[in-house]
Every structure is written in C-alpha cells, then in structure tokens.
Amino acid sequence: MGPTDRFYADLPSFEGFADAVDPARYTDAPTDWFVAITDVRGSTDAIEAGRYKDVNALGAASIVAVLNAAPGLDLPYVFGGDGATLLFPSSHREAIEGALRGMRDLARERFEMELRVGVVSIAELVQAGFPVRVARYRPSPHVCLAMLSGAGLPEAERRIKHPEEGLRYALAEQPGTADLGGFECRWEPLRSRNGLVLSVLVQALAPTPEGRAEVYRGVLAELDRVLGDLAHANPAHPFTLHISSDPTAFEQEARLRGGRAGVPYMLHKLQARTLAGVGRLLLATGWRLPGFDGARYRDEVVVNTDFRKFDDTLRMVVDVSEEQHQALRLTLQAAQDRGELAFGLHSSQSALMTCLIFNHEGNHVHFVDGADGGYAMAARPLKAALKGR
C-alpha cells in the first residue's frame, strides 16, 4: 500500500445530495494519483444504430475492471453512460492500466467497438493550474459514491480526446487482462411511472466555484419544486424493478465475461439466466437464502442507484411527467439565456440499469442511464450550447 492509498476511503462522507455542489465538501486529490477516462468512440452513431446497451455495458464494465484490479482499495469513479472517469494511486498503476488495456481488447474483440482509454497524472494537471477535487456522498449505509470537481477533470478529458495530444496519454498497445467478476445486467428496462425518463446534464458557467455552486443550488431547488422531491424521481422504484426473463437480456454480460461465442459464452449466459430465475423467485416470495434477502433487496437497489451525481456537471436520470419535463426545460432555458448555465436533455420511455455486485447484502451499486442513449444523447445539446457561447 502506498502512503496515499487510503485518501478516498478516509474522506468524510455526507448524506444530503445538495451538499454535492458545495465546494467546502471537496478535498484535493493527491498529486501521486492519476485520472483515467474511458469512452466509446463513435458512441452516438452506435446508439443511433440501436446499440445503446452495448455502449452502456462497456462504460460500466471499465469501472468493474479497475476495481477488481485493486482489491481492497476504495477508489472514486463516476459512470458517464458511454464511459467513466476514475481516480487511482500510483501504487496500483501497473495493475489498473493492465485492466484498462484488457477492457480495450474486450471492446474490440467481443463488441467490435473502440474503447478509448487515457491516463493523466494529477500532478501534471495541478502544475498546469487544473485542480482535481473529490467528495464522498453516502446515499445508503453500505455504499458511497464519488463526487468530483475542479478544472482538472474537463482538462484531462480534453487532453485524452485531442487528436494529436491524446497520443501522449493513450495506453500502450500491449495485451491486458480485465476481471469482470461482479458485473451484471439482469434487470428489465425500468419503465417510466410518470410518462418519461429524462436524462439531464447541467453545467454552471460562473467564473468562480462559489458562483457555480450558487447556480447548482438554484437548479436543485427548482428540481425539488417541479418534482416535489428529487429523491422520488429515481427511475429505480420497487414497482419498476423486475429481473428479466428474456433470454436475450443477458447478451452483454455473457459477451463481456465469456466471449462472442463458444462454450464460455454459453455457460455465462446459462449461469445468468439461472441466477436471474432464482432472483425472480426470491423477490416474488420475499424468501431469504444465505447472502440474499428477497424481502429487502429491491429497497436496497433503489437507494444504491447513481441516478444523480456531480463531476463539475450535474448529471441526473429522473422519472417525470410531460408537464414536469416542460417546466424543467423552460426553467433551464431561461437560465441558459441569462448566461448562467448550459444544459442538455434527452427523453426516453425507460431507463437502463447495469450493476456492480460486491455482495447482495447491501454492498452493490447500480448505474442508471436513460434508454436510447441517455447521457450520451443529452451531451449533444449541451456541447452545442457551450460551443455557441
């Protein structure tokens, strides 16, 4: 273990999501840590071709692979729909970069997709005047979610995605291995209870952290006003959580863990279908088996979802009515016209959920994105608004 390995684990946590936009909650990341960013190249085209489940699976799987490469180490990460942002210490760099190269190989071999992977030193970002800051949000007793802030994050993304500069940060083309134990995709799409699932991206434009925090507080207050209570807009709800019985629902999990075809693929698909059947029975009856409580699991899933998060952009997937959608759009448009923020919205009929299961007794995390592209599609109007400033 390195001297700063417990940086994230030792951060004080907070339980109210509104605190995620408070600069005082954040701590500078150690300068011997790194920022890793993954994203599916051409994700918009893939989504428009109907492959949004593949895109989501690769984004979530890159988080799973990194966490499995550093067992026992608590690391901050944010799922972004078509990729992820992760922070890790120099003491585990070799193992984690090997896992990321392995994910890049899996994306090519099993999905015929290109997963871009880049790593930037936090020391390099800080020396150039781009800080990286981290906070620890606790939505439930068993799970903490990282919130990220600072100019270092968009700068790291800019460097990694730059056509020429990005070559410096790309991982070498050599083999790697990704362990995807704990990765699951077994829930049916979460159908909207109110009419629409809305993927929301909001980026405040004030020049100071305090000014941006004030804008975000206003957005969250408006959300609570429009939605009644933001927590109640979670697309994951006991009424919408159903484990799938569709044999095609386990395709992404089987490919990632077993390959495109052959015996390993078939065995992983059979295992997923079998365990899904057991899960359906336990949830329907409320029965308990060692390690799984059918009466409590749905409620744990609801509170362990990442349907709202912050990484210097406010990201949410919320279940709303058409009236709420229009009220929120009008409010955000007015703030954008005043130059306070830029935003992007994308609506769909359901949400997708991809899961990271450490155990079924509390320690499980569920990544939520809107169907039909969610965050990736909402990013298009956001980028257009930022470009038009």
Uncertain segments are: none
Major beta sheet summary: 4 strands, mixed
> What is the H/E order?
EEEHHEEHEHEEHEEEHHHEEHEEHEEEH
How many beta strands in the DSSP annotation?
18
The structural class is alpha+beta
The CATH topology of the domain at 13-181 is Alpha-Beta Plaits
What would the principal axes of the Cα set say about the shape? globular
β-sheet strand percentage: 15-25%
Mean pLDDT: 92
CATH architecture of the domain at 13-181: 2-Layer Sandwich
Compute the number of helices: 11
The CATH class of the domain at 13-181 is identified as: Alpha Beta
The termini sit apart by 46 Å
What Rg is obtained from the alpha carbons, in whole angstroms? Answer: 20 Å
Helix content: 25-40%
Explain how this protein is built.
The protein has 389 residues and is of the alpha+beta class. It has a domain at 13-181: Alpha-Beta Plaits (2-Layer Sandwich). It has eleven helices and 18 strands. Strands 1, 2, 7 and 8 form a four-stranded mixed β-sheet that branches. The protein has a four-stranded antiparallel β-sheet with strand order 4-5-3-6, with helices on both faces. Strand 4 and strand 5 (83-89) form a beta hairpin. Helix 2 packs antiparallel against helix 3, helix 6 (209-227) runs antiparallel to helix 10 (322-337) and helix 7 (251-258) crosses helix 8 (262-285). The mean pLDDT is 92.
Offer a few descriptive terms.
alpha+beta, 38% helix, globular, four-stranded mixed β-sheet, Alpha-Beta Plaits, four-stranded antiparallel β-sheet, 389 residues
What layout of secondary structure does this protein have?
Elements: E1 13-14, E2 27-28, E3 33-40, H1 43-48, H2 52-69, E4 77-79, E5 83-89, H3 93-111, E6 115-121, H4 122-127, E7 133-140, E8 143-149, H5 152-161, E9 183-184, E10 190-191, E11 196-204, H6 209-227, H7 251-258, H8 262-285, E12 288-289, E13 292-293, H9 297-303, E14 308-310, E15 314-320, H10 322-337, E16 341-348, E17 350-357, E18 364-370, H11 374-387
Parallel strand pairs: 1-7
Antiparallel strand pairs: 2-7, 3-5, 3-6, 4-5, 7-8, 9-17, 10-17, 11-15, 11-16, 12-13, 14-15, 17-18
Helix pairs in contact: 2-3, 6-10, 7-8
